[in-house]
Amino acid sequence: MIKAMRTAASGMAAQQMNVDTIANNLANVNTTGFKRSKLEFQDMLYKHIRQAGSSAMTGTVVPTSLEVGYGTRPVSSVRQFQVGDLSETGNPLDLAIEGNGFFQVTLPDGTVAYTRDGSFKLSQDGQLSTSDGFLVTPEITIPADAEMISIGFDGKVYAKIVGQVDPQELGQLELAKFINPAGLEAMGHNLFTQSGASGDPIAGVPGEDGLGRVSQGYLELSNVDVVQEMVNMIVAQRAYEVNSKAIQTSDEMSGMATNLKR
Q1: Where do runs of H (alpha helix) occur along the chain?
Q2: If you ran DSSP here, which 8-state letter would residue 184 be given?
Q3: Which residue of 12, 147, 205, 206 has the fewest CB atoms within a 10 Å radius of its CB?
Q4: DSSP assignment of 4-19, as one string?
Q5: Are 217 and 89 in contact (CB under 8 A)?
Q6: Closest CA to 1 of 246, 239, 240, 243
Q7: Contacts with 114 (C-beta within 8 Å, 6 or more apart), sequence order
């Protein structure tokens, strides 16, 4: 009976983490560029009472095994990188990626981080940066006398300078992609960092070599589907209840065995 309780308890703990993951998805339903996570499970060790292929007392070969499992455990939080819907903002510094890739930003310690959040701002020096002040890489500086900023699908940045007829090219935005983006480490602030599982970043010009295009005046919305997450929450809740019922049943059976009288 104790084994059944521990097995069911592992199921309850796993479903609790599942609900935690779903809650985080729902909490970020309005977070720009957020990518939902999905929890994956794996069964645990088994106690083999009789091995398949062993010899029976009758001299025949046992076709199937007799075994009892020890429950389940969460093994992976898989980030789903499907592109979210685009929302028009009209802000010339708002950028969305139509397709694969990440914007690159430099952290205070010099580390390069990656983001799908293109709600950029200007620093005190006119440099393109995130809302937290992290500078976009490669650096783009907007002159103080610029009256209009234009960013093409290919990431080239232009500005109309006061007193000049032709727009001035200010720089080239680059995107980065990874062989395994699900292996990136989430560090909060809508940022990811490279890990040993993600592979090295492959930087390039937007619209080339499998990288998405850049759309000015748009932001990418979260790819969280509220209806689907609510369904997943109901399924997780029912699984939690079933496992708690298994513990209750084991306890009742244990009580029956304890109260047996000759």
Answers
A1: 2-27, 226-258
A2: P
A3: 147
A4: HHHHHHHHHHHHHHHH
A5: yes
A6: 246
A7: 102, 103, 104, 105, 176, 184, 191, 192, 193, 194, 201
For the segment 180-195, what is each residue's pLDDT rounded down to a tens digit?
Answer: 999 999 999 999 999 9
Question: Residues 150, 216: contact at Cβ < 8 Å?
Answer: yes
Residue 48 has pLDDT above 90, yes or no: no
Residue 103 gets which letter from DSSP?
E
Report whether 85 contacts 222 (CB < 8 A): no
Q: Are 26 and 55 in contact (CB under 8 A)?
A: no
* Lowest-confidence region among 66-80, 93-107, 110-124, 244-258: 244-258
Q: What DSSP line would sit under 41-87, residue for residue?
A: EEE--EEEEE-TTPBPTTSPBPSS-EEEE--EEEEEEEE--PPPPEE
pTM of the shown model: 0.87
Largest CA distance in the chain: 105
Determine contact, residues 212/84, Cβ cutoff 8 Å. Answer: no
Burial of residue 99, with CB atoms counted within 10 A of its CB: 0-12 exposed, 13-18 middle, 19 or more buried: middle
Question: Would you tell me how many other CB atoms lie within 10 Å of the CB of residue 11?
Answer: 20
Buried b (16+ CB within 10 A) or exposed e, 74-90: beeeebebebbeeeebe
